[in-house]
Amino acid sequence: MADNSKQYKKQSAFKSYLFMTLGAVIMAAGIYFFKFPNNFSTGGVSALSILLVPLLRGVSAGQIMIFFNILLLIVGFLVFGRKFAFKTVYCSMLLSICTRVFEIVLPMEAAFTDQKFLELIFAIGLTAVGSAILFNENASSGGTDIVAMILKKYSSLDIGKALLCSDAILAVASAFVFDIETGMFSVLGLVMKAFVVDNVIDSINLTKCFQIITDKDKEICEFITKDLHRGATVSMCTGAFTHDDKRIIITVLNRPQAVALKQYIKSVDPKAFTVITNSSDILGRGFRTIV
Fold this sequence. Notes:
The protein is of the alpha+beta class. It has two domains: 2-204, no CATH class; 207-279, Alpha-Beta Plaits. It has ten helices and four strands. The protein has a four-stranded antiparallel β-sheet with strand order 2-3-1-4. A hairpin with a 6-residue loop joins strand 2 and strand 3 (245-253). The mean pLDDT is 83.
């Protein structure tokens, strides 16, 4: 039993770091290929790097990102000590390194297109998807998130509002460093990012919650446990109209499993009464862990 538990933890850790690596690479692609060429300053260390490039001649935005991320990581270690999350260190450095590698391997002289709004959609879309993947693994890309952690420890300041204000200042500053159009796109991107991240996280975690009222509870439960490898809860219930005693099965499945269960219920008990609801916040083994 202990060996199975260790194996499960190793598999979970491997899967988690695989997703974190994917998230960091996607973020780096969005930042380098779409944010940097268009000077979109939608918050975070990448926005600060974009604003400093015109002032620091001969230094690339990727190099500035590495410098500030290392600086903030050091501050994080000094403030939090060993409690400082290794996942934050891993993601922060991987994001900076990937961005720098893109600069060396695929140098860009200009944006892909002259359609700034199209470029903004890709910039926000890729970085938001990457951020959502990291958040879903209880990780972050470091940067201004570390500042938020420090503020949370030493003040009663509303961290969300503080970060939004700092990101808004960076977005507005791009209008003065570059031009009004870039500033307006940066502010628009900042607003879009907040909505996209939340929606992507919900989509990643979307599950189907089943409540099945049936006479074929044994067959359905056997299908859920043996074929779908999920758990289920069975309770007695009584119909308000017929007063017949029936069983109600409650289970939570991912989308492919939900399709399979619906087809099985149709074949084994076409008269079953089934309620299916969407949820993106299921906690427990097989889903998200409580943190």
